[in-house]
Design a protein that fits this description.
By secondary structure, this protein is an alpha+beta fold. The chain is built from four helices and six strands.
């Protein structure tokens, strides 16, 4: 599993159903992504045989082995790397299947009342 540092889990999650599938080893699961056809780069769950394609993204990017196959965003790059790595099973999970949201710190401009 990889989880970006700005991900917030809103409830407990038990992946037992995901990993009980006979095809779990070759599957990549991610949260629903706004990029058409991409794999969300926020939270990615993957089986044992899918791991090498997902966990070598930095190297794939640096040596350019995936560049010609994708559009201009992280989600498309991840999809291209997964496809190049032989992963044919990519499943997008809705909020019920993967209870995460991206978190963001927003400065509301509050002032100290003593000033």
């Amino acid at each position: 599993m990889w989880v970006r540092d700005d991900t917030h889990w809103v409830k407990r999650w038990h992946p037992t159903e995901l990993f009980s599938s006979p095809l779990a080893n070759i599957t990549v699961w991610s949260s629903v992504c706004g990029a058409e056809g991409g794999i969300s780069d926020k939270t990615v769950i993957f089986g044992r045989k899918a791991a090498p394609a997902v966990l070598t993204l930095f190297t794939a990017y640096m040596i350019g082995s995936v560049r010609g196959r994708v559009g201009g965003n992280a989600e498309a790059f991840l999809r291209g790397a997964a496809t190049k790595g032989g992963i044919k099973r990519q499943i997008k999970l809705g909020f019920g299947g993967l209870p995460v949201v991206p978190a963001m710190l927003i400065d509301l401009g509050t002032k100290n009342s003593s000033n």
